[in-house]
Design brief:
Length: 385
Amino acid sequence: MKKILKLNEISPLADDFFKDYEYSSEVKTPEGIMVRSAQMADFEVNKELLAVARAGAGTNNIPVAAYAEKGIVVFNTPGANANAVKELVICELFLGGRKITEAIEWVNGLKSEGENIPKLVEKGKSKFVGNEILGKTLGVIGLGAIGISVANAAAALGMKVIAVDPFLSTAGAVALSSSVTLLSSREELYEKSDFITVHVPLNAETRGMFDKKAFGKMKDGAVLINNSRGELAVTGDVISALGTGKLSRYITDFPDEKLIGVNNAICVPHLGASTPEAEDNCAVMAAKQLTEYIENGNITNSVNYPSVFMPRTGVARVCVHHKNIKEILSKLLAIISAQGINVANMQDVSRGEYAYLICDLDDTPSTESLNVMRGVAGVLKVRLI
Ligand code: MLT
């Protein structure tokens, strides 16, 4: 029986997919891993491990590049928690425009005032006057499932929405409201936005993107909303920008020690995807992708290998993770041919420096020939299903 290790609590809706597996937080030598936010940097990878499925969008807790090199596929669940995050962002737009958090805190302090409370409320409320979002400009950075969902919802609320995403997919462009204006540079977005919300992954290019220089280009009093990852912003520069009024608010799902308690910083405890609906959606999507890969070798929504879906034909399926280098495919096919086996169907797809061959054969190749494949320079993993 194949084994799936559960590194975090995962919605029980995933259980249905793992009926034929040993699925728990205790299993050793797993073929698959289901994870949410557990840090995997120091996880000792066993040789049986085929794939890791993250029930969520960000994969910065998983050593994605190192796993690619070992032929381990990492999946995420784009879109599965988009509605939950969108709803939080909409809430934060209002929190950015109005002084609701401070006002609630002030009212809580009035408890002992008894019957004077209504009078004190009317007298004190002018300190908490805020702005509406209607007609204001929202800049959306990153138009994946979440960014698109936020852009469309904000446009429906009467905001002028502008956005940047150099990697916008065709499907994304179709899903995006026609009222959203696409810009080609972040600088232009900074100059024009009253509110900015970011929906990009954390990587070498995006780490620290909100720094002194970026704040310098923004409108005075801009509101920055960051539900993606804390490290996208340089905390010291955020605090300075709040101090000078360059930023009127910084609202983030990723509190840190320096930020908590800073005037006009609103820290939310990573609640973006914390709804049962999002947790169910993510768990189901992650489990489906993981089992489809383990059972059939098909890849959907991987962050380190290309997508491939090939219905099963033939008698045996051979899956090969390999470097995207010349002549490797002909070498692999020659090994199959040398066995006198017909290739019923095949696909070889690449993504950056990695590629994946999925090959349905009319006969089962010998263990010896699979080992010969494993010995070809640039081959990372060979699997017979
Ligand atoms: C995500 O990456 O999907 C969100 O930050 C929520 C989460 O980490 O679970």
